[in-house]
Specification:
It is a single chain. This protein is an alpha/beta fold. Helices cover about 45% and strands about 20% of the residues. Helix 2 runs parallel beside helix 3 and helix 3 packs parallel to helix 4. The longest helix has about 35 residues.
C-alpha cells in the first residue's frame, strides 16, 4: 500500500510540474502572439542607446518578456549597428541619445559601435550623450557625440587604462594543492595565476605593450572628436587633473555639467517641440521590433558566430562554442548551394585544443568550396585564432586582442589537500604504470610529467604549422611571433596574423566581392531561439536563473563566479587559451 501511495504521489507531483510548465509555455506563446504586432514609431523620435547594457554578439528573446512588460529582449551588437544605419534615413528618427555612459563592453565592441555612430553623423542628425556616472570606456563611446554632458555632482573617470590579474598560488599552497602545469610558449601566461604570485617579465612586457596600444587608439579617437591633442589628454590623466565633472568641462572633455531636465530641454529644442512636451524616446528594443531592416538578395552569405569558450561536445547556448555544434553549422553552410560565402565572426579567448582542431578542419573544407572570411570581435586569441587562421582573409578591429598562439595543460594534485585537510586517502590497483596517469589523487611521476610536456609540445607544433600554412608563412617565423604572445588588431596586421582593419560589415562586403555576388542577403548562425525553443531546450530556465542571480549579486560578482566555473574546463585537457583573466578598465 505504501509503495502504491509513493508512486501515486510521485506521479501526481510530476503531473502538477508538467502542467505548470505547460501553462507557462502556453502563456508565453499567447503573450508572444499578442505582442507580435510591430509597434509604431511616431514622428520626431529620439533613438535611445543605453551604454550600460552589455552588447552580446547576437541578441536573444528575453524569456521573462512573455510574462512582464518590464523585461525587454536583448538586442545584439550587429542588430544595434544595423538599426543605427537604418535610422540615418528614417524620417521619424531625428537623432540619437546616448545615456548611462558606464559601459561594461569590450573596447572592440565599442569601436564598432562608435564607427556606426560616426557614420550616422553624416546624415546631419544629432547625437547627444548624458550620464550621472561616466567611466572611461563609456566616455570613449560618448565622445563621438555632438554634445556630451554629465550630472554636475556625478562621477567622471579619466586616469588611463589598467589591467589586473588575480593570482591563486598562495591560496593553493595553503590548501596544499599542487597545480601540475605544462605549457609551451614563454608568453603563454594563462597558467600564471596558478603557478606564480605576480606577473612574469614576459607577461608584464606583453600586457604593457598591448594596453598602451589600446589606450593610444582611445586617445586618437577622442582627440579627433573633441578637438584636443593626445598629449593634452594623456597629461590630464597622468596628473589626475580631472577630479570632478566640472574639471572635465574646464578641460573641454565635456560640453557642460547639467541636470537631466536641462539636457531634455536641449533635446526638445533639437527635435522641434516645446520643453513642456514629452520627448518621443525610442528604445533600441522597441525600434528593433518596429522596423524591418532590408535584407534581400539572390545569394546568401552565412555569418557564423563563434562567441565564448571553445569546448568539446554538443552543449548549446550563449557564451560557448562547442565543437560538434559549431562544426555542423559550418558544414551546413558549406553544403548549402545558396550560401556563396561564409563569414566567421570570432569573439573567443580559445579553449580546448581538440575542439579547436575539429572546427579548424571543417573550415578548411569550406574554404575549398567557397570564400571564408574572418571578422574578429573583442578577442580572437589562442583557440580563437586557431579556428580563424585557415580563412582566406582575416579582419580585426584596432582594439581586438588576438594571437596568443601557445598551449598548456593543468592537472592538479589534490593528494595533500584531501589527506591533510579532509582526512581522505586513496588506494587501488592498475594493469600498468600509466593506467591512472590522469588521476588527481597523487602526483605525476617523472616519466608521466615528461609524457605530458611532450604532448603539449606536439600540440603546439601542430598549432604553429596550421597557422603557418594558413598565413603562408614559415613555421620559424610563426614561432617568432607565437610563444603565447598577445597582440592588438593593429599589431596583428604588422606581424601578419591579420590582413586588414575593419568591422563585420567590411568583412561581409569582402566575402561578397570574393564570391562575385552583387545581390545578397546575410543570415546569422546559430539562429537565436524564440521563447518556445528556449523552454524546450532548457535555456529559458537557465536564462531566468542567470538574470535573477545577476540582479542579486551584481555584474562584477557574476563575472567572478563565471571565471571560477571556467577553471573546471581547464583541468586535464590540452588548452589553446589566452591568459586566464585580462580585465581592462
Amino acid at each position: 500500500m505504501r509503495s502504491f501511495l509513493k508512486v501515486f504521489f510521485a506521479s501526481l507531483l510530476a503531473l502538477i510540474i508538467f502542467t505548470i510548465i505547460g501553462v507557462m509555455v502556453l502563456i508565453g506563446i499567447g503573450v508572444s502572439a499578442a505582442s507580435s504586432e510591430a509597434p509604431a514609431i511616431a514622428e520626431k523620435g529620439v533613438l535611445v542607446l543605453d551604454a550600460s547594457l552589455p552588447l552580446p554578439e547576437q541578441g536573444q528573446e528575453n524569456p521573462l518578456s512573455a510574462f512582464t512588460p518590464d523585461a525587454t529582449d536583448v538586442v545584439g551588437l550587429h542588430d544595434v549597428i544595423a538599426l543605427i544605419n537604418y535610422a540615418k534615413t528614417d524620417d521619424n528618427i531625428k537623432g540619437i541619445y546616448i545615456r548611462n555612459c558606464y559601459s561594461p563592453n569590450g573596447l572592440a565592441t565599442l569601436e564598432e559601435l562608435r564607427t556606426a555612430l560616426a557614420d550616422f553623423k553624416k546624415s546631419k542628425k544629432f547625437i547627444y550623450a548624458y550620464s550621472d556616472i561616466m567611466n572611461q570606456k563609456g566616455y570613449y563611446l560618448s565622445s563621438v557625440a555632438d554634445k556630451v554632458f554629465a550630472q554636475p555632482e556625478g562621477f567622471f573617470e579619466w586616469g588611463g587604462l589598467s589591467s589586473e590579474i588575480t593570482y591563486f598560488k598562495q591560496a593553493l599552497d595553503r590548501l596544499n594543492i599542487q597545480p601540475q602545469i605544462f605549457y609551451a610558449g614563454k608568453f603563454k601566461s594563462a597558467t600564471e595565476p596558478f603557478r606564480a604570485d605576480k606577473m612574469s617579465p614576459e607577461n608584464r612586457l606583453q600586457t604593457s605593450v598591448f594596453i598602451n596600444e589600446l589606450y593610444g587608439k582611445m586617445l586618437i579617437d577622442i582627440a579627433a572628436d573633441r578637438k584636443i591633442d593626445t598629449a593634452t589628454l594623456r597629461n590630464l590623466a597622468n596628473t589626475a587633473a580631472i577630479r570632478t565633472v566640472r574639471d572635465a568641462v574646464d578641460a573641454k572633455l565635456l560640453d557642460g555639467a547639467r541636470y537631466d531636465d536641462d539636457v531634455k530641454t536641449s533635446l526638445a529644442n533639437k527635435v522641434g517641440i516645446k520643453p513642456s512636451e514629452t520627448i518621443n524616446f525610442v528604445s533600441i528594443s522597441k525600434y528593433h521590433k518596429a522596423v524591418t531592416i532590408p535584407n534581400d538578395g539572390t545569394d546568401k552569405i552565412a555569418i557564423i558566430v563563434a562567441n565564448g569558450d571553445i569546448m568539446d561536445g554538443e552543449q548549446e547556448g550563449n557564451g560557448v562554442v562547442t565543437s560538434n555544434v559549431f562544426k555542423n553549422l559550418v558544414r551546413k553552410a558549406r553544403l548549402d548551394d545558396k550560401v556563396k560565402a561564409i563569414v566567421l565572426r570570432v569573439n573567443s579567448p580559445g579553449g580546448s585544443a581538440l575542439a579547436s582542431d575539429v572546427i579548424w578542419h571543417e573550415i578548411t573544407l569550406a574554404k575549398k568550396e567557397k570564400p571564408v572570411v574572418v571578422s574578429m570581435g573583442d578577442v580572437a586569441a589562442s583557440g580563437g585564432y586557431y579556428i580563424a587562421c585557415a580563412a582566406d582573409s582575416v579582419f580585426a578591429n584596432h582594439t581586438t586582442i588576438t594571437g596568443s598562439i601557445g598551449v598548456f595543460t593543468i592537472l592538479p594534485n589534490m593528494q595533500g589537500f584531501l589527506k591533510d585537510k579532509l582526512g581522505v586517502t586513496f588506494d587501488g590497483v592498475k594493469t600498468g604504470p600509466y593506467a591512472d596517469m590522469l588521476t588527481i589523487t597523487r602526483p605525476l611521476t617523472t616519466a608521466e610529467q615528461a609524457l605530458m610536456q611532450t604532448g603539449v609540445e606536439k600540440t603546439y607544433g601542430t598549432f604553429k604549422k596550421k597557422v603557418a600554412d594558413g598565413r603562408k608563412k614559415s613555421v620559424d617565423y610563426i614561432d617568432s611571433i607565437a610563444q603565447g604572445r598577445v597582440w592588438t588588431g593593429d599589431k596583428g596586421v604588422t606581424v601578419g596574423l591579420v590582413d586588414r582593419i575593419g568591422t563585420l560589415q567590411d568583412a561581409v562586403a569582402c566575402a561578397a566581392r570574393m564570391a562575385k555576388s552583387k545581390s545578397y542577403k546575410v543570415r546569422f548562425y546559430p539562429e537565436a531561439p524564440d521563447f518556445l525553443q528556449q523552454v524546450l531546450n532548457g535555456n529559458a530556465v537557465n536564462n531566468i536563473k542567470t538574470q535573477v542571480l545577476k540582479s542579486e549579486i551584481g555584474e562584477a560578482q557574476w563575472q567572478l563566479l563565471n571565471k571560477t566555473k571556467q577553471v573546471q574546463n581547464l583541468v586535464g585537457v590540452t588548452q589553446c587559451r589566452m591568459p586566464f583573466d585580462i580585465s581592462v578598465r
